[in-house]
Amino acid sequence: MALLQPTYEANEHLLREMIAVGEDIIDSKDLDLIRENANLNGESFSGKMSKLGSEYAKWYAKHFIMPKSVVRAIEENYVYVHDLDQYAIGTTNCIFIPFDKLLGGGFNTGNGSVRPPNSIMTAMALVAIIFQSQQNAQYGGVSASKIDHDLAPYVAKSFSKYFRKGVFYFEEEDGAEPSDIHMSNFELQLRYPKSFRYALKETEAETLQGAESLIHNLNTMSSRAGGQIPFTSINYGTCTSPEGQMVIDALLTATMQGLGSGETPIFPIQIFKCKQGVNQSPKDPNYALFLKAAECSAKRLYPNFANLDAPLNLQVYDPSDPDSEFATMGCRTRVLSDRFGRNKLSGKGNLSFNTLNLVKLGIEYGTALGKRKKADEQGFYHALDHYLDIALDGLLHRFDIQRRQKAKASDFMMREGVWEGGEQLAPDEPVGDLLKHGSLSLGFIGVAECMKALYGRHHGEDEQVFEKAFRLIAYMRAYCDRKSDELDLNITLFATPAEGLSGKFTKRDRQYYGSLPGITDREYYTNSFHIPVYYEIQAARKIRLEARFHDLCNAGAISYIELNGNARSNPAAFLSIVQYALSQQVSYFSINHPIDRCSACGYEGIIGSVCPSCGSHEEDVHIRRLRRVTGYLTGDFQTRFNSAKQAEVRDRVKHTP
Amino acid sequence: MNLCGYYPESINEGEGLRASIFISGCRHRCKGCFSPVTWNFNYGEPFTLQRQNEIIGDIARNPLLSGISLLGGDPFFSAAEVSEFLDRLYAQAGAVNTWIYTGYTYEELTADPLAAEYALLRRCHVLVDGRFEEALRDTSLRYCGSSNQRLINIPASLASGKVELWEPTVRF
């Protein structure tokens, strides 16, 4: 590959750029670069090694691969290309794994083949192995959309195994047909009371132990450079068989018990799928599990709550197919609908996404700079169209690179059919059209600051401005729908989970435009369409305002409420907030509340500067403060978050004092 | 009557999400009190009719609230005025579930059925009673500070003539 203008000056410039990239990483000079991702320890050797590769890959893509218009839009701070380091090599983003298929048929990790498991314990162990194998075939998250349904058959296998043991040891008359041996067979229970009871107790214990091992595995197996563990999410809540209920119950119990010293597990992020008639009112079969999920969430910050009854998710819901139930990556990604008919989750994922800096457009066409009295809406929408086109060009150009990759490049994913249909490809065959079932997403950040820049008030402050904000996002969604039809691809609108990005746009806009009050004067831009974290607003109103955007963001969105106070001690409040959010059609919801942990005595709760349990001071003893960023948790926010996200956490207004 | 604090939404002073209203003035002077400044009846802002109406509006408009909590100071030192506020609230916002915190005991408040304190008690649903005892302080208690304090179901207690404790409607 050659430079377009191979002059001496250009070469010198490139060389200087490259050297600076290396120095920043090796000397840990640029903390924000190193903490771009809260789950990566960028100060470790392997983290630095990975960072070097990643920064060079970005540099290479920008100089030699990408369309010039896209590079210019990045450089001028209008567009952000996520995971740019993966652009040139054509890696894809995230996936929902068909665990039922992989467990049921066995699989090959590339280093060895694995038989289908015969017990829930083994099945849970294999889930971790599948997550890890898949993680190495892509760069984003890995998710199980219906782990309760996927694992229920192995609970049944364990039960059957224990029942046979019981019959042998208790010398109860042998004669039960294999097909009669299952947990909901009441006659079996009457005929073989001892064996049945024994089998049930042992299966329960094994399922819990399996869940514990799964959670421990997913928090300890560093499989990426920088000590990163796979970005795993598990969705559950709707399986109503006793086996499925046992899986859900065990996962929740194990999560509440926590890791080795009782601390909150960071992964897998868990999502409880809420559905009327299944788990939302006391007469529903899984209501007790919903209550338990709320209890777990009050204690551990998750499960988050997915709303199967939100209109967007109800469209493709088929009660006979749990794979048609809305589920998500922890971060919020939604890939449920497919214009090619695969309106289900497993076997596909998001391919890539680009985010627009709405704030910059707002500043240029709004009143913030004092150049005009009234926002230039026509100019704004004209520029918006221009940058939507460029951002989409970037996605399409990247998609073309992704399509040309050979199946063996994402070996596990294709060979094992984790991406549906991949198993039919020869190793050297390009993945091609198979990828069209995935989604290409356009994202956005800073609706609040954009409105402030255009009109002087944000969408939480003024009803008319709210309608303008709504119109803007509806406009972007219409653009995505139109382009989907024109290009015959799944182009979707994303309420971007901005973690690394949250401070990047801001920093550069502030350098350029100065510190504009309510716009560039903080270290971060407000996530997607959220009402600013520092704005005082009652919980119900925040939920109502944000809810309207969820239906527009078909690539995913999340809303939060911040609670101050011990959420664990007020179940009624916790439940009423969750159910209110669901009733307002929020698609994906969670409650943030502080979980601090004293490393001296292990006390968990709200800790100011002094631990209420042992009296240790934060200056003497490390207080681990767990917070949520994009939907995932991270460890201690003070050592792992970048400066922009740290500032955001400090600014968060609690919706209850 | 002065207002020394108002949280439109709180999870710390009673079951569910509640609007917490703090009335200035207290003569119990418990040792270890979390905010002795509120003992002063002149502390805070005057709880004017306008301010009362604003708060009543907040409560009526908020679909997430399980009710309100009255704290202080000690609202029973301004019993008659607090009763008037509650009557106004109930007239405008309908049936609102009310928790009330006091340093008095239930027995003291029910001693004289003709007293203003009894009239206020009658308007409320849950009483958190008893002085704060520093020696009995326990941070693990729900909705109160020391283990001598009781959470009393007021209507049930008045009906049966003896102290009936409040039970949570949702448990984890």
TrEMBL record, chain A:
The gene is nrdD. InterPro entries: NrdD. It comes from Paenibacillus physcomitrellae. This is Ribonucleoside-triphosphate reductase. It comes from the Bacteria.
UniProtKB/TrEMBL annotation, chain B:
It is an enzyme of class 1 (oxidoreductase). InterPro entries: Aldolase_TIM (IPR013785), NrdG (IPR012837), Organic_radical-activating (IPR034457), rSAM (IPR007197), rSAM_sf (IPR058240). Keywords: 4Fe-4S, Iron, Iron-sulfur, Metal-binding, Oxidoreductase, S-adenosyl-L-methionine. Its EC number is 1.97.1.-. Its cofactor is [4Fe-4S] cluster. The keyword ATP-binding does not apply. Activation of anaerobic ribonucleoside-triphosphate reductase under anaerobic conditions by generation of an organic free radical, using S-adenosylmethionine and reduced flavodoxin as cosubstrates to produce 5'-deoxy-adenosine. Belongs to the organic radical-activating enzymes family. This is Anaerobic ribonucleoside-triphosphate reductase-activating protein.
